[in-house]
Inverse folding.
């Protein structure tokens, strides 16, 4: 009986996909920020020094902390903007997964060193 | 039988949190497949949706524990600078790797990639856990959310595998060791 009720209810979605879209896109942005900050710190001694938040860990502490903060800020803003809307998810997915794929590639030192 | 505190932390980071995360990834992919296969979609129960959310949340906790312990506990020991004139570099893994042409690339490619790519994992899996919890049963009506969920879990597995592989190889070539010794079993 409870299974029948669940099956009947499952086709009636009352939530929008905006919160999901915000989470997906911001995760792509946060991932890309990790790679971007790693390359930037590698290319500039000034930026590298700026990213030293915790000396024993070096610039990695700042690169990752700022990337995580940027990710969370992007997520919060997009969530607030999109929470009651339906967003075109195929486009968001392509952008987010492309950013994630680029992050994997750009964190690979021989690729990051090309810039 | 004894172990140093640094070795113990390396074990907790790599074999504890990291390896467990990799194992959990294969479980998550199997769970996602079973949960959203054509047959399962018509016979699913709310308990299964809840379980998926709890499972991915536990994975996110593991991922955060892995990168935080790696970055703030083990990495400082790994990259510690050797005092001038030090000839035995065993306590300075980064310097030890860089001192030999045959091992140099383990740091220049291995550690440089590992230390950054690992951070993609908690970001990706936290997002996946959020989607699973927030949408729960509605995931069935949003195939695009499911695609993203699968994509991010697979990418997190790839990133965690890269970090895990290089972590193991780095520790094989230049182990992070030292600190106070913990006696596990008293010798005769």
């Amino acid at each position: 009986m409870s299974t029948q009720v669940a099956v009947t209810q499952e086709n009636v979605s009352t939530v929008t996909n905006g919160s999901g879209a915000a989470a997906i896109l911001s995760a792509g942005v946060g991932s890309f920020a990790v790679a971007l900050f790693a390359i930037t710190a590698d290319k500039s001694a000034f930026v590298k020094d700026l990213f030293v938040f915790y000396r024993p860990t070096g610039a990695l502490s700042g690169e990752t902390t700022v990337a995580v903060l940027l990710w969370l800020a992007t997520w919060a803003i997009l969530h607030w903007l999109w929470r009651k809307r339906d967003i075109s998810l195929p486009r968001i997915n392509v952008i987010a997964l492309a950013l994630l794929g680029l992050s994997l590639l750009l964190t690979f030192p021989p690729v990051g060193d090309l810039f | 039988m004894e172990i140093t505190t640094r070795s113990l932390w390396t074990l907790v980071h790599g074999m504890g949190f990291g390896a467990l995360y990799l194992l959990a990834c294969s479980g998550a992919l199997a769970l996602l497949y079973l949960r959203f296969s054509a047959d399962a979609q018509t016979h699913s129960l709310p308990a299964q949706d809840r379980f998926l959310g709890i499972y991915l949340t536990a994975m996110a906790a593991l991922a955060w524990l892995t990168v935080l312990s790696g970055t703030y506990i083990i990495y400082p020991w790994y990259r510690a600078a050797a005092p001038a004139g030090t000839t035995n570099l065993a306590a300075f893994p980064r310097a030890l790797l860089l001192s030999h042409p045959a091992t140099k690339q383990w740091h220049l490619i291995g550690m440089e990639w590992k230390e950054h790519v690992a951070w993609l994992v908690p970001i990706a899996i936290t997002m996946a856990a959020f989607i699973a919890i927030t949408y729960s049963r509605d995931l069935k009506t949003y195939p695009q959310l499911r695609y993203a969920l699968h994509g991010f879990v697979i990418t997190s597995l790839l990133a965690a595998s890269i970090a895990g592989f290089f972590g193991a190889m780095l520790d094989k070539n230049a182990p992070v060791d030292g600190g106070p010794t913990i006696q596990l079993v008293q010798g005769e």
Q: What stands out?
A: Helices of chain B lie at 5-36, 46-79, 93-98, 101-117, 120-135, 143-173.
